[in-house]
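Technical appendix A lists one of the benchmark inputs used to test multi-chain prediction within the project. The record comprises two sequence entries:
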Amino acid sequence: MQVLFLLEQVVNGLVLGGYYLLIALGLSLIFSVGGVVNLAHGAFYALGAYGAVEIAKHLGFGPAMVLSPVAVALLGILFERFLLRRFYTADPILSLLVTFGLALVAEQAIRMIWGAAPLPFAMPQAFKGSVVLGDFLFSRYRLFLLAVVALVLTGIWFLIHRTSFGRVVRAGIQRPDMVAALGIRLQPYMTAIVMLGVGMAALGGALFAPISNVHPAMGAEIITVAFVVVVIGGLGSFWGVVLASLLVGVVRGITIHFVPAAGEASMYILMFLVLMFRPRGLLGERIEKFE
Amino acid sequence: MTSRRDLLKAGTAGALALGFPAIVKAQSGAIKIGHLTPLTGFLGALGEYAVMGMKMAVEEVNAAGGVMGRQLDVMSEDSVNPATASTKAQRMLERDGVEFLMGEINSASAKTIMQVAARNKRLFLQIGARSDVLRGKDCNRYTFHVDIPVTVMVNAAGQALAREGHIKGKRIYFLTSDYLFGHDLAKAAKAFVAANGGTLVGDELTATDTTDFSPFLLKIRQAKPDLVATNLGGNQVTNFVKQYAEFGLPYQVAGFNLNTADAWSAGEGNLAGIWPTVWHHDLDTPGSKAFVAAFRQKYGKPPENHAWIEYVSLKIMAQAMNATKSVDTEKLIKYFESQAEFDLLKARKGYFRAWDHQLIQEAFPFTVKPKGQAKDKWDILAFGAAVPAPNQPLESINPPKSQNACVL
């Protein structure tokens, strides 16, 4: 019985890890290609959630889940074009400061527009409740969430690994100078990567809005988790981020099974252990420009 | 006809008054008051209401001529965390020249401000933090407490739960927030459950930054309790009830802490169970009705319990200053300890207990209205009758001296 309970936590942790992945993958891509740690990533996550709440009032739940991330992705284009672009070759401390500042501005702007009190938001009645598969309990909504994550993930993998777009991006991570020498401008690719990255973060926010608080500081809550996942997974590796997200979710579940109070601390302990033995992260590649 | 010159003069005077309100007030010798409350973090939503209630009370007092002919000048700031709260409290007393301190919701921050108050021998009206130890083991003679302590919350919700047969002979699962307030709440709740014949089958701590409760929900299902009782703080409760509804577990839910703002933000159909509160906007007293109407007029929404408590707290201070004709800490302490009565907009008046400085007042249990009965999005809660009942002494739901370690 005990083993079964533990296994249930592992499976549940995998589902949660899938959701972390949605936010961490974009952060990792932007970091890998542009060399910028986007500390404002959480702000786009929060905007995705607030956008979903607003759109759902007028158009319903389904359109909100689609339109809010798309709108935020478009905002991401402006963010890249007018802000991020200036910092690719600058001292990393500058991009850290500017994205950190932007995160603070965004949080306060949300507080001024929507107020500090969390917004109420509920999922359609049909999603409520759980299903028992074998011996495991799943919430119906999280199964839906998992399906969306799998779909997005497959799409991103295909884009990065099977298209000419992805070839340039992968080359750009390792050898931006060579890409430039071949006469390819990386900038439009970077715009697309940022658009995709913040769009995924917004999708994460929209999907999590019905089951958690929609409040101004929600971005700050998630950016820490996403950052830890990226560090554990290692830079430049698609599968590294996937592995790290799932691992963080599972380790958290197992920790809560045995020592509930340490649940939120578990990922930091995991990060500590991984960095002790693999300073580049689990599957991190050696990237010349960051050495 | 008004000349252009007159118009300009009037405009300049208006702009000056708008631009330099502090100077205008300072000239009439305003009474400065320091107000600290969390405006960010997991209690930030409650702090926002607290500031709204405070502002409204200050405007009313000042419009009526102030206190002893002097205007009140309240500086409200984000207390952030226990360390920042104590630094800001010290700065307000030392550099900003405030006469006394008010505020707080976070029990851990309230504790550090209490230490600052004692060190500086200045009054601190501790408004919104509910931990028992603040008015128990850690009490000091410079601090008075307005909000109900956790024992009262446990008694208010617990008596309603016991009446409906959810405690006696039942298997109860506790989920507790891992900080001062949560621990205190769990301690009081455990004593209540044991005294009323319930059995604890689970007792778990969760970090205050927990946003995903799914691993805990799985553990609850594995334990198969009759009742899930939460001792959570701030917006954690909202996260929990949203995800509890998501998983659709069949066990009865209740909790010993839920602020109205967090109940409002749970979303339609997500909230269930029995909870306690210190005040609610449906309360049928002339005072509360007038306050709710004025608040709605000013802010376009009903007041939450933290707006009410900040509002009455400032009125309490105004009454005390008027009665003693002073802002002197010693005189104010003496007045409060005389068990003077205060209008709390409730059916019964309140007073501070002299030996632990706790405001003694009524509390209320509440449940959730059945679907379709809510008039608007604020009208989702069904409030129960006041505890203690009108024929019982007000003090009966508070911890008696024999159970309270406070020595002033």
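The beta strands of chain A are 130-133, 136-139. The longest helix of chain A spans residues 2-34. Comparable benchmark entries are summarised in Table A2.
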